[in-house]
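Objective 1.3, modelling of assemblies. Example input:
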Amino acid sequence: MSILIGAITTLAFALLIIAAIGVIRLPNALARQHAVTKAATLSLSLLIIAMMLVAVQMDWSGAWLIKLSLLLVLLLITLPLASHALARSSLYEEKNR
Amino acid sequence: MMFTTLAIISFLCSLAGLYRLLVGPTMTDRVIGLDLLFAIGVLFCLLSAWMNQNSLYLDVAIGLALTGFIATLAWSKLIQQPQQTVAKPEEDS
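Predicted structure (C-alpha cells):
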C-alpha cells in the first residue's frame, strides 16, 4: 500500500514539473495553456487520490474522505471550464492583435 | 524529509508560474501564470494538511480552488472585451 502511495505521489510531482517546464518553454499562449491545465489537473487529482489512500490506510476520520472527494469533484468540474475560457481569450487576442 | 523535498519542488515550479506572470508577452500568458500559481497554492494546502494531519487545511484548499476558478473566468471575460478608447479631453491652445 505505501509503495503505491509513494508511486502516485512521485507521478503527481513529476507532472507538476512537466507543467512548469511547459509554461516556460512552449512558444505561444495556446500551447502554454494546454500544458499547464492538463498537467496541473492530473497532478492535483493524483495527489488527492494518494491522500485518500493514506486516509484509508491510517484510519483517519471520515471528514477526510468527504472533503477530499468534494475537492476532487470540484477540481474536475472547474479546471476544464477555466481552460476553455483561457483558450477562447487566447484565440481572441491572436485574432485582434 | 519527504515533505521538505516535495515543498521545495513545488516552490521551484511556482517560480516558473511567477516568471510567466511577470514576463508573459500577452495578457493571456499572465492569466496562465496565475492559474499555475493557484494550482500550486491548492497543492501546498494539501501538503500541509497531510503533514500536520489536520483536515482544516482542506477547507482552505476548496476555497482557494473556487477563488482561482472565478478569477480565471473573470480575467478571460475581461480580455475578450473590445478595447475601449478613452476619450482625451480637448486641449485648448
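The two ends of chain B are 71 Å apart (CA to CA).
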